[in-house]
Amino acid sequence: MLSAKSLFQQILDNDESFRLFCSIAASGEAQGGWENARIAALVPEGHSELVPKVARHGADEDKHGRIFQALLRKRGLEPMEVPEDVDYTMLLEGLGIGLAHERLRGSQRLTEDDVLEYLAHSRVTEQRASEEMVMLRKLFGDREDVGRAVKMISSDEDSHLAYCNEELLRLARAGHGPRIRELLHRSALAEVRVYRDVSLGVMSRMGRVLGWSRPKAALLALGIHGRYVYERLGGWRRMVRLRMPRHRNALGEPASAAPEFA
Q1: φ, ψ (nearest 5 deg) of residue 253
Q2: Which of 12, 73, 146, 161 fits 126 for a cystine, CB–CB 3.0-4.6 Å?
Q3: Burial readout 18-41 (b: 16 or more C-beta within 10 A, e: otherwise)
Q4: Dihedral sign (CA 24, 216, 146, 133)
Q5: Tens digits of residue pLDDT in 95-141
Q6: Cα dihedral 241, 233, 122, 110 in deg (nearest 10)
């Protein structure tokens, strides 16, 4: 039977597919850590209250990257270079979503609209990250080799999503509602397209590594396309809803000093 659990079980049990999975995850988290660190350094003066929260966001992402690297080391594996066609962050940037890396490498302060762009982009991508980690936590939270890492990262992603919702609602009350809605809609529609393309690229590579049959690979591709159709027709709306989270001020404190583990 083809299920999410059996699929990920195969990926986690094979060294080469595990290496690809962790390398992609570590690269994405490291990029997120760098982006947030640069944004924290460039936040405009009128939004200085965001600086420690953005910095905390970046510190968490860096931590996640180190955790995925540690999971590789535990298996005696080296990270691999991430193919361009499955680089989620850079593909989104290529569609004009989020703040361009070239801009973040500079020293010019961000504008208020840049802050809105950052938060809207983060709200959409953190929705995806939170959902994926909830799934992995349910499937493998009790697995000895990856369970503790999955639980830690999942908790952090939930906090990131809560933070984005709360900050966007605050800015919407300050009069930025129409612009926030525009940015959220544009980011969500681009994200579901990129997520489809990355999923197809990753599963194609996993299929070659794991020797999946053509019918199995075709069925998985069909499922990815089916999810995209659902999201494009309306599923994307969950990514743009703003609700005050139960966990308020989720990133308002410095990063935890709790030990990292994998």
Answers
A1: -110, 160
A2: 161
A3: bbbbbbbbbbbbbbbbbbbbbbbe
A4: positive
A5: 999 999 999 999 999 999 999 999 999 999 999 999 999 999 999 98
A6: -100
